[in-house]
Amino acid sequence: MKRAIQPSNVERKMRENDFIVSKTNPKGIITYGNPIFIEFSGYSEAELLGSQHNIIRHPDMPRAAFKLAWDTIQSGKEFFAYVKNMSKDGGFYWVFTHITPDVDANGQIVGYTSVRRCPSAEAVAKIEPVYRAMLAAEKAAGARSAIEAGTAVLVDIMKQTGMSYEELVFSL
């Protein structure tokens, strides 16, 4: 039986000029990872290829954030977000991610490309409380309505600020 990785408080900071690149098929299975992705994830290329991209999902990230990401990219639109990822050893690293759908000659989505770069410390400091509030709402709601509860927190923040999700992300 595979043991779950326990998160730690050990943070790895991306270097200013780093770009983490990964590609997946339409189901989120990793088909490519550049050397910096392999480095920060802590997994070997063999461990990453063929795995679900959520292999690096940190438990501090609300499920609603990933639902928003999937809904956006599956509709053919690009998506931007700040994300806390977890490496194989339980450490974490923050990224500013840009995910785009890859389409074939007929316009059908054949996969996704994610390019992540070093986020600003100020943006991370601003998004962390948003994610904590979303996660708390998800936990309080229970498994059946967790995503809806986390989404409601985000929608409320967008209403308070008068910004769309993308405007909110770029304002950080």
Question: How would you characterize the overall build of this protein?
Answer:
The structure is a single chain. With 172 residues, the protein is of the alpha+beta class. The protein has one domain: PAS domain (Beta-Lactamase, 2-Layer Sandwich), CATH 3.30.450. The protein contains six helices and five strands; from the N terminus they run E-E-H-H-H-E-E-E-H-H-H. Helix 3 (63-74) packs across helix 5 and helix 4 (121-141) packs across helix 5 (146-161). The chain is globular, with a radius of gyration of 16 Å. 28% of the residues are buried. The model has no long low-confidence stretch (mean pLDDT 95).
Summarize the structure.
The chain has 172 residues and is an alpha+beta fold. The chain has 6 helices and 5 strands; from the N terminus they run ββαααβββααα.
Descriptive tags:
172 residues, alpha+beta, Beta-Lactamase, 5 strands
**Number of separate structural domains:** 1
Unreliable spans: none
Radius of gyration over C-alpha positions, nearest whole angstrom? 16 Å
Shape: globular
Count the helices. How many?
6
Mean pLDDT: 95
Name of the CATH class: Alpha Beta
**Structural classification:** alpha+beta
Helix content estimate: 25-40%
One letter per element, helices H and strands E, the order comes to EEHHHEEEHHH
Q: How is the main sheet built?
A: 5 strands, antiparallel
